[in-house]
Structures are given as structure tokens and as C-alpha cells.
Amino acid sequence: MSTAYHPQTDGQTEVMNRLLGNMFRSVVGDNIKSWDSKLPQVEFAHNHAKNRSLGFSPFQVIYGIVPRGPLDLTVVPDLTRMHGAAKDFVESLQETHSAARENLQLSAVRYKTAADRHRREVLFAPGDMVWVYLTRDRLPAHEYNKLKSRKIGPVKILEVINPNAYRLDLPASIKTANVFNVKYLSPFHGDNDNQDSEANLLLHGET
């Protein structure tokens, strides 16, 4: 289960939906309503596709074998694929999982390294003044408007919960939890109205 307006909490499903959408888009062409007749074709392609991060197809990670294709259905079957010792099968599956886990770890390191190039660490202390960005889920439905400013400040930091979470002294007019992630905060440097005028900021106490 994921919370409203936070699809990133269900990222695996979101990635799969996007992947299947791209695959269906490439096979249905102009006959969009024929998507259900393409399910076997898309399923076959997905089961054989090697995942870039895993290094294996998802089917192989789960079942330990590559699904059989048309070329495997020959007159003389490959008995080694059909009949194998249970011990050998389990060991093969464990080796696949181990290799997939290592590939995922390496992939995560690569993604983190790429993301860290554009990430900056911001640390605040109690008493610091900051600008606060209010996301849609923090505003009542009757108050939300796309053209209404969502940045308020200056707001004082009351408590540092951890480097990613801060408790703020919000104005009484803001009816939401006073704990914010650091990505929604930006430093307040004195009178910087001119600097942030393009963001349509609300000053402390403005309604």
C-alpha cells in the first residue's frame, strides 16, 4: 500500500507499469484496442529480457531457468533442461540469486555515484531561518490552487530530528505537521525578497 501523492513509495510497481506500457505501445501500433490479444507476446518478451541491473531475466531469477521458446520445441528435446537433480536445481537457483544480488549492489553504487554528483548536503541548526516549500498534500483541498504561492518564510527551525528531518515553528495559519524533509527547505539569507520574487513567496504572517 502506498500513500496518496507519493507514488515513489511503490516504485517497483511504477517501473513495471512503465515497462509494460512501453512494450504494449511498440506491438499494438494503430490497433490500440487489440492490446489484450498481445498479452502472450509481451509476456514472452518480458520473460526473456535480461534486466540491466540484475544481469538476468526476472523469470530466471524466480524460477532458475530461462523460459522455453519456439526453438526449444524440437523433435529431440533437451533432456538436461527437463530432468535435473533437485540439488543441482537449487544450487543453480542460489547461484543465480547470488549473482543477481551482486549485480544489484553494483548497479546501486553506480546510480548513487551519478546522483551524488548533483546532490548537495544542507545542514541547519535550531534557530536558523529558512524558506519552506508546501507540497500539495500538505494543503487542504479547498485551499489548493496551482497559482497560489506554496513557499513560506522566513520560518524558524525548532529542532533537528536528524540530518533529513527538521521541526519548524510554522505560522498559526498553516494547518499541517511541522516536521519537514530537508529537500523542502532552503536557507533564508536576510532580506532576499528580490532574489526569490519569481517564486511568488509568502512572507511570515501573510495570508
From TrEMBL:
<dbReference type="InterPro" id="IPR056924">
    <property type="entry name" value="SH3_Tf2-1"/>
</dbReference>
<dbReference type="InterPro" id="IPR012337">
    <property type="entry name" value="RNaseH-like_sf"/>
</dbReference>
<dbReference type="Pfam" id="PF24626">
    <property type="entry name" value="SH3_Tf2-1"/>
</dbReference>
<protein>
    <recommendedName>
        <fullName>Integrase catalytic domain-containing protein</fullName>
    </recommendedName>
</protein>
<dbReference type="GO" id="GO:0003676">
    <property type="term" value="F:nucleic acid binding"/>
</dbReference>
<dbReference type="GO" id="GO:0015074">
    <property type="term" value="P:DNA integration"/>
</dbReference>
<dbReference type="InterPro" id="IPR036397">
    <property type="entry name" value="RNaseH_sf"/>
</dbReference>
<dbReference type="InterPro" id="IPR001584">
    <property type="entry name" value="Integrase_cat-core"/>
</dbReference>
<dbReference type="InterPro" id="IPR050951">
    <property type="entry name" value="Retrovirus_Pol_polyprotein"/>
</dbReference>
<feature type="domain" description="Integrase catalytic">
    <location>
        <begin position="1"/>
        <end position="66"/>
    </location>
</feature>
